[in-house]
């Protein structure tokens, strides 16, 4: 099968991610969303990386922006600056301001007493809603583990013959099967799971239930076009 190189754009944060003196972990990963132009995405800190991993795998998110422009808001006594972690454009056209409330720090804009003022300022900045996420909410359930697994597979090359074997097997099984049955049917041995996750990353397969951990008991299907 012939390949054609695809240009991968650099990250496009609207402001510097962190001062040079900050000890936070910084990095990049590749987006698989067409609305993102398949570009690289930058992050500062693992909580921000985890939040954007969830955005990446959320079908309701068309595109998202890391480190969007800050906006000013007032708590009634002084003017403050809000630094959103990300901004997400949903399928219904709404633009959501996402704030990350790290447990070890206290952000005034995350205080319920100031929520109305922050939302008013965000509306003036062009946002339709504000969501405040905690690390506990981000890590709840299996969504984060699945998102990180699929995100890693997206960045790793896969054998095209292995992918073809899985595509043939899922067709033979009627377009829907458990990962265990698909592994057995494709006959790839210990390479089967990697190929299946790669096809999920390529959005050629989709889990029936996004809340199920991606193990042998998870059921995947060919997405409807």
Please tell me the CATH architecture of the largest domain by its name: 3-Layer(aba) Sandwich
Separation of termini? Answer: 23 Å
| Number of domains as seen in the coordinates | 2
Broad shape: elongated
List its traits:
disordered N terminus, 3-stranded antiparallel β-sheet, Trna Endonuclease, Chain: A, domain 1, 4-stranded mixed β-sheet, single chain, 11 strands, alpha+beta, 225 residues
Topology overview:
Blueprint lengths: L25 E5 L9 E5 L1 H12 L3 E6 L4 E4 L4 E4 L3 E5 L4 E7 L13 H10 L4 E6 H5 L3 H12 L5 H13 L3 E3 H8 L5 H10 L4 E2 L11 E3 L4
Parallel strand pairs: 7-8
Antiparallel strand pairs: 1-2, 3-6, 4-5, 6-7, 9-11, 10-11
Helix pairs in contact: 1-4, 4-7, 5-6
């Amino acid at each position: 099968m012939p390949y054609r190189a695809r240009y991968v754009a650099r990250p496009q944060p609207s402001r510097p991610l962190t001062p040079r003196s900050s000890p936070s972990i910084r990095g990049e990963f590749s987006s698989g969303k067409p609305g993102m132009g398949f570009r690289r995405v930058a992050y500062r800190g693992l909580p921000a990386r985890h939040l954007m991993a969830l955005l990446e795998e959320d079908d309701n998110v068309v595109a998202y922006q890391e480190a969007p422009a800050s906006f000013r808001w007032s708590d009634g006594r002084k003017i403050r600056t809000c630094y959103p972690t990300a901004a997400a454009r949903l399928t219904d056209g709404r633009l959501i301001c996402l704030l990350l409330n790290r447990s070890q720090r206290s952000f005034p804009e995350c205080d319920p007493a100031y929520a109305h003022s922050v939302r008013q300022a965000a509306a003036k900045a062009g946002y339709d809603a504000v969501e405040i996420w905690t690390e506990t909410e981000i890590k709840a359930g299996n969504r984060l583990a699945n998102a990180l697994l699929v995100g890693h597979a997206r960045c790793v090359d896969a054998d095209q013959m292995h992918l073809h074997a899985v595509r043939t097997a899922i067709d033979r099984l009627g377009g829907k099967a458990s990962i265990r049955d698909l592994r057995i049917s494709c006959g790839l041995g210990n390479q089967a799971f990697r190929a299946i996750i790669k096809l999920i990353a390529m959005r050629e397969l989709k889990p029936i239930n996004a809340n199920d951990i991606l193990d042998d008991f998870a059921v995947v299907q060919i997405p409807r076009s």
